[in-house]
């Protein structure tokens, strides 16, 4: 009999939430079928069956689980049990409906055609529960926050509760940096932008400003990492992610990595290996006319750098670059020096940074 245990998904969480069973208790499953989703503080991960058989659930939806915990078994099916059927196929133009969602539709007597109006590609049991709740209220709509959004909310709440943050902004003439980005774009035949140069510049400051990359251990101690690991905010409309660029990379390599991250964000392909280990964050707010954005400082980090939309100013182009910082670890004068160093790098860029 096979076992499904909770894997260790990251080094930040000691427990996870079982969000949903994707197969009913006792249902036949195939090898490599997704059977459950787990929510971590950063993302949602699917667990798969390692063999064919009948699923026996041992933990209820919504329960907290720890790494190594046994949450299900997959055993032989009895002669009366149906063999695993073919993969569900979505109706033409409609979303795919999972078996648990179909079972709940039948239980509630809801027309399966109702789910066609849901803004999801895969209809799960939780989507049907939300639909039923909206129909029961008779007015307005309710919406269940996604597991990812709830994780973002917990991180923001913890940051505001635990970190006494300061914030300082500097104006930077980014005309030379934008020219460098255009030159690299033509040479590499790959889009290079101001965010790529900023990430490279932040990483380069690690040796001169190590405390800005530190982790507070207790009231008297910080851990200073050997290398920079820069998280970058990515939001392609399906939720905010902060994947990490490790070590010091040249601008072309950073541009390639960020392009890969954007593809993963579009298709929901991020795993814990992409999202963990950062020691500073660059937050991108480069939609037109955005002139101020104050980022949160991730718990366990000291600083977050914010880049806003470049603005024309006479014959030059300027951008505001802000730094949110944990005042327990760095002070205002050090912050000014850090921002001045960033400003100098971007106003006198080299193509490799």
**Terminal Cα span:** 55 Å
CATH architecture of the largest domain: 2-Layer Sandwich
Order of helices and strands: EEEEEEEEEHEHHEHHEEEEEEHHEEEEH
Poorly predicted residue ranges: none
CATH structural class of the largest domain: Alpha Beta
Q: Quick one: biggest sheet?
A: 7 strands, mixed
Per the principal axes of the C-alpha atoms, what is the gross shape? elongated
Count of the domains: 2
Class by helix and strand content?
alpha+beta
Mean pLDDT: 87
CATH H-level name of the largest domain... which superfamily? Answer: Chloramphenicol acetyltransferase-like domain
The counted number of beta strands is 21
Helicity level: 25-40%
Assembly classification: single chain
The rounded Rg comes to 24 Å
Looking at the structure, the CATH topology of the largest domain is: Chloramphenicol Acetyltransferase
Count every helix, treating DSSP H or I runs of 4 or more residues as helices. Answer: 8
Organism: Nonomuraea solani
InterPro entries: 2-oxoA_DH_lipoyl-BS, 2-oxoacid_DH_actylTfrase, 2-oxoacid_DH_E2_comp, Biotin_lipoyl, CAT-like_dom_sf, Single_hybrid_motif
GO molecular function: acetyltransferase activity; lipoic acid binding
Keywords: Acyltransferase, Lipoyl, Transferase
Write the layout of secondary structure elements.
Elements: E1 2-5, E2 16-21, E3 28-29, E4 34-39, E5 44-48, E6 53-57, E7 64-65, E8 70-75, E9 96-97, H1 99-108, E10 122-123, H2 125-137, H3 147-162, E11 165-173, H4 175-188, H5 194-204, E12 215-218, E13 221-223, E14 229-232, E15 234-235, E16 240-241, E17 244-246, H6 251-267, H7 272-275, E18 280-285, E19 303-308, E20 311-313, E21 316-326, H8 332-347
Parallel strand pairs: 9-10, 14-18, 18-19
Antiparallel strand pairs: 1-8, 2-4, 2-7, 3-6, 4-5, 6-8, 11-21, 12-13, 14-17, 15-16, 19-21, 20-21
Helix pairs in contact: 1-2, 5-6
């Amino acid at each position: 009999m096979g076992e499904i245990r909770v894997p260790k998904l990251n080094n930040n969480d000691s427990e996870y939430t079982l969000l949903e069973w994707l197969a009913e208790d006792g249902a036949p499953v195939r090898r490599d079928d997704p059977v459950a989703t787990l929510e971590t503080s950063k993302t949602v991960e699917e667990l798969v069956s390692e063999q064919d058989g009948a699923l026996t659930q041992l933990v209820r939806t919504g329960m907290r689980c720890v790494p190594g915990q046994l949450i299900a078994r997959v055993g032989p099916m009895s002669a009366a049990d149906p063999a695993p059927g073919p993969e569900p196929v979505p109706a033409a133009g409609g979303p795919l409906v999972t078996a648990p969602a179909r079972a709940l539709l039948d239980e509630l007597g809801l027309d399966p055609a109702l789910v066609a109006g849901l803004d999801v590609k895969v209809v799960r049991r939780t989507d049907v529960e939300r639909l039923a709740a909206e129909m029961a209220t008779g007015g307005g709509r309710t919406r269940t926050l996604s597991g990812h959004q709830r994780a973002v909310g917990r991180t923001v709440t913890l940051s505001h509760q635990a970190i006494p943050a300061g914030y300082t902004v500097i104006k930077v003439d980014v005309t030379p940096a934008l020219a460098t980005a255009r030159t690299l774009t033509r040479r590499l035949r790959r889009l290079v932008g101001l965010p790529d140069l900023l990430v490279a510049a932040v990483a380069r400051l690690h040796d001169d400003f190590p405390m800005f990359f530190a982790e507070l251990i207790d009231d008297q101690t910080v851990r200073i990492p050997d290398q920079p690991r820069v998280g970058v905010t990515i939001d392609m409309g399906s939720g905010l992610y902060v994947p990490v660029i490790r070590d010091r990379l040249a601008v072309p390599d950073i541009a390639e990595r960020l392009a890969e991250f954007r593809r993963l964000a579009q298709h929901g392909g991020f795993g814990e290996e992409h999202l963990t280990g950062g020691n500073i964050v660059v937050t991108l707010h480069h939609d037109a006319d955005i002139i101020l954005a104050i980022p949160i400082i991730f718990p366990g980090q000291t600083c977050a750098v914010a880049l806003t939309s470049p603005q024309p100013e006479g014959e030059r182009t300027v951008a505001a670059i802000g730094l949110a910082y944990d005042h327990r670890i760095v002070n205002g004068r050090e912050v000014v020096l850090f921002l001045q160093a960033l400003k100098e790098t971007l106003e006198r860029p080299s193509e490799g940074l």
